[in-house]
Amino acid sequence: MGGIVDGRHAVVTGAAQGIGLAIARRLAAEGARVTIADLDGDRAEAAAAEIPGAAGIACDVTSEVDVQAVADRALGSGGLDIWVNNAGVTKDASLRKMTLDDFDLVVGVHLRGTWLGVRAAQAAMRESGGGSIVNISSLSGKFGNPGQTNYSAAKAGIVGLTKAAAKEVAHHGVRINAVQPGLIRTPMTAAMTPEALAATEASIPMRRAGEPDEVAGAVLFLASDLSSYMTGAVLEVGGGRGM
Ligand code: NAD
């Protein structure tokens, strides 16, 4: 008891591993009841089993039905206060090699998924008396990464979506902010060669990759009342990269 999100109900998408799992753990440690919604339902349940009071549920964020079901379930179990749109995938390739399917997959999961999450969450929060939505963008959406035309487009789109939606619902007590992580050590970045990792780390002012929990700290801040006068903001968590 005494956590900064005590008694709140939080949904975190794509939280079976990586940054989402760190966010779920951090919110739970600060008193929230967390729902882990992930494409992989078994891993969502396994992750939830390790976190006191958490539940895991299968949810494809590109499915309108799945996302609505998660929001309805939250409303039915006492209200929805926090929703983090974190689920993500990469499918990197140069423009010469990237297929339309690669583009559609990445834009679908990030942009359609975040839009569906924002729409369902803000409606549920308006019924619950307000809340906080946090969208996970990326510094790749700020400065553009070669080989990531799909991902950079989607992550930049999340910023526009965040601001437009924040303006629409601010007067209903729903805040919507975004976080742009830089290079973070997760299964998503484990595929990088040691050379590529070292080269990227050398270009970061803090000279290192970040840890998932360092993103979770910023998300906790935006999810909690500590940021009660912030909406439509974009927080960079990148060790100074791209400033
Ligand atoms: P990850 O690959 O470790 O985890 C992503 C999770 O999302 C997985 O559990 C996966 O099952 C889930 N997922 C994928 N597609 C889904 C779908 N359609 N519906 C529901 N869940 C789905 O990735 P991560 O590194 O933890 O990244 C989390 C978020 O942070 C992503 O949005 C990513 O783009 C963003 N991000 C990551 C980094 C980084 O360096 N790792 C940097 C900037 C932004």
- For CATH, the homologous superfamily is named as NAD(P)-binding Rossmann-like Domain
Tally of structural domains? 1
Helix content: 40-55%
Q: Widest sheet: strand order?
A: 3-2-1-4-5-6-7
Assess the beta-strand content as a share of residues. 15-25%
Question: How many strands appear in the DSSP assignment?
Answer: 7
Oligomer: single chain
Largest β sheet strand count, sense and barrel closure: 7 strands, parallel
The first-to-last residue Cα distance is 38 Å
Order of helices and strands: EHEHEHEHEHHEHHE
Q: What is the class in the CATH system?
A: Alpha Beta
Write the layout of secondary structure elements.
Layout: E1 9-13, H1 18-29, E2 33-38, H2 41-49, E3 55-58, H3 64-76, E4 82-85, H4 100-128, E5 131-136, H5 140-143, H6 149-169, E6 174-181, H7 194-202, H8 212-223, E7 234-237
Parallel strand pairs: 1-2, 1-4, 2-3, 4-5, 5-6, 6-7
Bound molecules: nicotinamide-adenine-dinucleotide (NAD).
Nicotinamide-adenine-dinucleotide (NAD) binds at residues 13-14, 16-20, 38-40, 59-62, 86-89, 109, 113, 136, 138, 181, 183-184, 186-189.
